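User: My advisor, Dr. K., asked me to get a structural model of this assembly before our group meeting. I'm new to this, so sorry if the format is off. These are the inputs:
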Amino acid sequence: MDWGALHTILGGVNKHSTSIGKIWLTVLFIFRIMILVVAAERVWGDEQDDFVCNTLQPGCRNVCYDHFFPISHIRLWALQLIFVSTPALLVAMHVAYRRHEKKRQFRKGDQKCEFKDIEEIRRQRFRIEGSLWWTYTSSIFFRLIFEAVFMYAFYFMYDGFRMPRLMKCNAWPCPNTVDCFVSRPTEKTVFTIFMIAVSSICILLNVAELCYLLTKFFLRRSKKAGNSKQQPNHENKEETKQNEMNELISDSCQNTVIGFSS
Amino acid sequence: MSWAFLRDLLSGVNKYSTGIGRIWVAVVFMFRLLVYVAAAENIWKHEHDEFECNIKQPGCENVCFDHFFPVSHIRLWALQLIMVSTPSLLVVFHVAYRENREKHHNQKLYKNPGKIDGGLLCTYLISLILKTGLEIVFLVLFYKLYNGFKIPRLVKCDIKPCPNTVDCYISKPTEKMIFLYFLVATSCLCIVLNLGELSYLILKYSIKCYLKRHMKKQQ
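Assistant: The format is fine. Below is the predicted structure of the whole assembly, which you can bring to the meeting.
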């Protein structure tokens, strides 16, 4: 079980996402999870071993480290990524439920069922409308909330996003105010700023996707209220073409991601 | 052999679960297994090396560490994950037994071997009860072994060969405590899901039974 398994789970959701959703997923995997696994974990790997305090008093180093780093950056990021990926599971479950219902209809021999076989049901791509729209929109909303909460937690816990070189500590059993030195502070600052920047980009993408979905929803409603009988098939064909193009673009991006594993 | 095996096992179980069962599998994957592998394992990685006592007496640190951590939190966590996922195998075995029977008799004995009814319902309910029981057992074990879910910064140790009462410092106690609370929270969530699923199944099949009997009486 590792981040690769998460990629498999979320990859299934990709098919039913909007184009912005697919971009978000690609940014998540390439610029956050991959960077975390391949680079950031090494930078924070020796954090306690190389945290040095100017004292020989046993226990002082442990206590000071615990005081300044109640929860390590790297663990906070891992939790953030897990929480932010979880709402997409709601969409995956809803799609699976819909597929299950269609399969049941098909097995009962329902005349209304337009599929020729079960394989077609499995391969079908559901449009984001009706109850799936609500699930999808709430998942984006929860993603936004989780991102914001974790960014705030970071800022609150570490007094900003800079990693200082020197910290002064006088927690017991340190005999007096002792100088403690953090290992690789500049590198850690660089990665922290990078992760925060990518988090902000993801927040922007989520906000854009939310606006896009809401706009589409209101436009659809106004069309239905107006004259929805005129040429609905024409518009659907164009949308499907655009979605297929977007799928091709993002699939080629996904193929470059499939190769990685931790 | 690694956690991937457990992941594949649970994916197989997912097929024969109810909706709540699938939510349970998702919670176990995302909030327990993934958090364990991606975050928690690294916190406890060097716990022995970083456990420091205020004494130069050889052997004192070892003895004190062993006294305060008979079984490490992270190992208990791993055991809990494995034990809690295993009862689901009962369901998989029962379905495989049904399919085997059909093959052996060369005829369709069941409308759908994966459908939760009859004997498979009993197996499913037993697996739910076992899962819940094991979760509670491990939570109680955690509580009893470590006197609650707190991890102190400092523990005092006076076991031989330590010459007197010695101060020993645990590494990353706050971070460990945060993840311990996370473990307890997800465990409780899984217990609630299991109990919910149990009630749902019992209610559903009681109503079905009652309706069948009612129809029979009318006829």
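One thing worth pointing out at the meeting: Residues 248-262 of chain A have pLDDT under 50 and may be disordered.

User: Perfect, thanks a lot.
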